[in-house]
Amino acid sequence: MAKVDAIVYNSNAGHGKEYAKIISEATGVKAYDLEDAKNSLNTDTKVLFIGWIMGSGIKGYKKAVKAFNVLGVCAVGMAPMGATDGEIKNKNNLPKSMQFFYLQGGFEWDKVSGADKTIMKMVKKKFNKDFGGKENISEGEKDMLELVNNGGSRVSSENATKVIEWINS
């Protein structure tokens, strides 16, 4: 018996949706987009929520907590796995009892617009200034530099292993 009754996700560039599909297929737990879930599920439904990160905030988390019994959260971001867990937990006021997972998603320039695109251009400029051309940077920093410059996805079933194990335990 799975720990949760549903997987609910909020996805911007599609990485959260991809993880929802991977986790759903591996666990047999149905996945719903947040807006569809609000129309389809009861407020007492036990869910794993998957949301994308912007400025350490998990997009859709507050809506999900108001609408469902959220037992676990997956934050999908650009940074390498686990790089910002504490900051994300604090910024979103996640209860200590809440199961938390960070999943590296990716970045897609063609799916960013408006003020977000302006912000990401500044991030790109800063990353290139801080890390571009330097030899002594970590693999994680190299990966982030690659993502902000060229975009790409880091979604994989391997990244979701701990989430799948938690749901199935």
Q: How many individual β-strands?
A: 8
Outline type: globular
Instruction: Provide mean pLDDT, rounded.
Output: 91
Strand percentage lies at: 15-25%
Q: How many helical stretches?
A: 7
**How far apart are the termini?**
8 Å
Which oligomerization state do the chains in this entry correspond to? single chain
- Class derived from helix and strand content: alpha/beta
Major sheet description: 6 strands, mixed
- The low-confidence parts are none
The H-and-E topology, N to C, reads as EHEHEEHEHEEHHEH
Helix-residue proportion? 40-55%
Gyration radius from CA atoms, angstroms? 16 Å
What can you tell me about this protein's structure?
- With 169 residues, the protein is of the alpha/beta class.
- It is 43% helix and 22% strand.
- It is built from 7 helices and 8 strands, in the order βαβαββαβαββααβα.
- The strands form 2 sheets. Strands 1, 2, 3, 4, 5 and 6 form a 6-stranded mixed beta sheet that branches. A two-stranded antiparallel sheet has the order 7-8.
- Strand 5, helix 4 (85-91) and strand 6 form a beta-alpha-beta unit.
- It is globular, with a radius of gyration of 16 Å.
- The mean pLDDT is 91.
